[in-house]
Design goal:
The two termini are 20 Å apart. The chain is globular, with a radius of gyration of 12 Å. It is largely without helices or strands and 65 residues long.
Length: 65
């Protein structure tokens, strides 16, 4: 399951091991961490779960909702 754009689990976690191979990519091969500058990091810049949330800048303003 992918995180919703408004999920509190985005930019929530941190892990030193996440910066090295093979932990620096998510299950789909996207780079991790992918820090969203619009979200305050709770404990770090890594999303909780198997997938790192990749924000499409076109839809970042929420006009698609």
């Amino acid at each position: 399951l992918h995180l919703r754009r408004d999920s509190p689990a985005i930019d929530y976690a941190t892990s030193a091991s996440a910066l090295g191979w093979p932990y620096n990519i998510d299950t789909e091969g996207s780079p991790r961490p992918l820090d969203d500058s619009g979200i305050t990091n709770q404990f770090g810049s890594i999303d909780v779960g198997a997938f790192e949330s990749a924000t499409d800048a076109l839809f970042a303003d929420g006009f698609d909702s």
